Amino acid sequence: MAVATIAGVDVHVDDEGFMTEPGEWNEDIGRQLATNIGIEMTEDHWRVVKFLREDFTETGETPTLRRVSTAGGFETKQLFVLFPKKPAKKMSYVAGLQKPVGCV
Amino acid sequence: MTTTETAPIIPDFGDDETDRKIAFICSKGNLDMAYPALIMASGALGEGIECHIFFTFWGMDMINKATQANLQFSMLGNTAMHMPGQAWHIPQGFGGLPGMTGFATRMLKKQIRELDVPDVPEFLSMLHDMGAKLWACKLSVDMMGLERDDMIDEVEDIINVSEFMELSEDAQIIFI
C-alpha cells in the first residue's frame, strides 16, 4: 500500500497504481488518472466513469465490461473506442476503483 | 506499511505489446462445451489480445442460426454430474431417461443466466463487437450442406484449413 499525490491530493494506491479507497476520488483525480494512461476525458468518458462509480456504490463491486454494457446501457464497441484495448481495467483505473473480479 | 510515493505509479496496460494472438478451435456443439471458448475469448479480448475462433464439425452448431440458441447439455458420459451444491453423483442411467437432457439443459442455462453470462447467440454477438473474428470451416460447411446465409452475420468468412493455418500463425491455439 502506498500513498500517491494525484491532482494535488494524497490518495491510497496499490502496487499497480489503482486507487484502493474509492472515497478519496474526485473528478480532478479522474481526469489526471486518464491523462496518465493517454486518455482525454470527454462527456462520453465521464458518463461511463460515473456509471462505474454509481454501480460500485450500489453493489460494492467494480462492474465487469458485460455489466457496464447491460446495466449501464453502453455499447461494448463504444467502450473499446473510449478505453482502447483493455476497457474494463482502464475504466476502473480512471474511476478510482479496483479491477473487476468477474470473468465476463 | 504505507509509503509515500513521489513519482506517480501508473499501471502498465501493455499498449505497446500488440503481438499476442490467440485462436480457439470450437469442435463441439454441446452447450457445456460451447462456453469455455466464449468465456476465454472474452477474457482475451478484454486484455487487448487479437482473437480468432474457428468453428468446425459440431462446433458449427454454435454459429448456425437454426441451432445456436438450442444447444443441449447431456448428463450422459459426464461422470462429474451432480446436483448443484451436492457432492453425490447422479447415476449415469438417469441421463438416458426421457426428458433428462432437456432438464439438464434448462438447469445449466438457468445457472449461467444467474451469473449474468449471456446465452450463446448473444455471447457471439458480444465477442464480435469486442473485435473477435469468427471463421467457419469449409469442410464442415460442405459436409453439412450449409450455405453462408445459414450462419450468423458475425461470421467473417468460410475458410479452409490452410487459410486457418495462415491466420493463426504465431497464435496460441486452443482446441475445444
Overall mean pLDDT of chain B stands at 91
**Major sheet size, sense and barrel closure of chain B:** 5 strands, parallel
Largest interface by Cβ-Cβ < 8 Å: A-B, 35 and 28 residues
Order of helices and strands of chain A: EEHHHHH
Number of strands of chain A: 2
The assembly state of the depicted protein chains is: heterodimer
Low-confidence stretches of chain B: none
Helix proportion range of chain A: 40-55%
| Cα distance spanning the termini of chain B | 46 Å
Total number of helices of chain B: 6
Large-scale geometry of chain A: globular
Rg over alpha carbons of chain B: 20 Å
Structure description:
The complex is a heterodimer of chains A (104) and B (176). Chain A is 46% helix and 10% strand. Chain A is mainly alpha-helical and 104 residues long. Chain A has a two-stranded antiparallel sheet with strand order 1-2. Chain A is built from 5 helices and 2 strands; from the N terminus they run E-E-H-H-H-H-H. Chain B has 176 residues and is α/β, with parallel strands linked by helices. In chain B, helix 5 (138-143) links the parallel strand 4 and strand 5 (155-159). In chain B, helix 1 packs parallel to helix 4. Chain B is globular, with a radius of gyration of 20 Å. The A-B interface holds A 1-6, 10, 12-13, 15-18, 36-38, 65-67, 69-70, 75-77, 80, 84-90, 93, 103-104 and B 1-6, 8-15, 39, 42-43, 46-48, 115-118, 126, 129-131.
Using brief descriptors, characterize the structure shown.
heterodimer; A: 104 residues; mainly alpha; two-stranded antiparallel sheet; B: 176 residues; alpha/beta; five-stranded parallel sheet; globular
Secondary structure layout plus pairing:
The complex is a heterodimer of chains A (104) and B (176).
Chain A lengths: L1 E5 L2 E5 L13 H10 L6 H17 L5 H6 L5 H7 L4 H8 L10
Antiparallel strand pairs in A: 1-2
Chain B lengths: L2 E3 L15 E6 L4 H16 L3 E6 L36 H4 L4 H15 L5 H11 L2 E5 H6 L11 E5 L1 H7 L4 E4 L1
Parallel strand pairs in B: 2-3, 2-6, 3-4, 4-5
